[in-house]
Amino acid sequence: MIFTNDKAIYLQMADRLCDEILSGTYQDDERIPSVREYAVLLEVNTNTAVKAYDELARANIIYNKRGLGYFVMKGAKKQILKERKKEFVKERLPELFRQMQLLDITIDDVVEAYNNQ
């Protein structure tokens, strides 16, 4: 994984796990890689992976079964979608609309581009 400088690495790792849940890689109540496995996979310090897992546990996306590892919380995909949509509408759409206005791009232009992808 290539990390960016605009967000803490552990948050980028948490986002990646959320992406994997959204894409169906991990289902409700399915075990996810251990902290160590994920740290090795992404070539980061184990403490960074611990922070990512702690963040997701606090957000009720994953839970820990003592001695067995971390699992996806039931309804996690729905919760992630809800939060991501809210963030998209609040954080990204205003800038997108501003750019569209500056560049004279209409909704019809966007629909056409979307349909031609």
Topology:
Blueprint: H1 9-22, H2 35-42, H3 46-58, E1 62-65, E2 69-72, H4 76-103, H5 107-115
Antiparallel strand pairs: 1-2
Helix pairs in contact: 1-3, 2-3
Describe this structure in words.
- The chain has five helices and two strands; from the N terminus they run H-H-H-E-E-H-H.
- Helices cover 62% and strands 7% of the residues.
- Strand 1 and strand 2 (69-72) form a beta hairpin.
- With 117 residues, the chain is mainly alpha-helical.
- It has helices at residues 9-22, 35-42, 46-58, 76-103, 107-115, and strands at 62-65, 69-72.
- It has a two-stranded antiparallel ribbon.
- The chain has two domains: 9-76, Orthogonal Bundle (Arc Repressor Mutant, subunit A); 77-115.
- Helix 1 (9-22) crosses helix 3 (46-58).
Q: Biggest sheet: strands side by side, in what order?
A: 1-2
N-end to C-end Cα span: 26 Å
Count the domains: 2
Largest sheet: 2 strands, antiparallel
How many helical elements? Answer: 5
How confident overall, as mean pLDDT?
A: 95
Broad structural category: mainly alpha
Q: Given the C-alpha coordinates, what overall shape results?
A: elongated
Features:
two-stranded antiparallel ribbon, Arc Repressor Mutant, subunit A, mainly alpha, single chain
Question: What is the structure about, briefly put?
Answer:
The chain is mostly helical and 117 residues long.
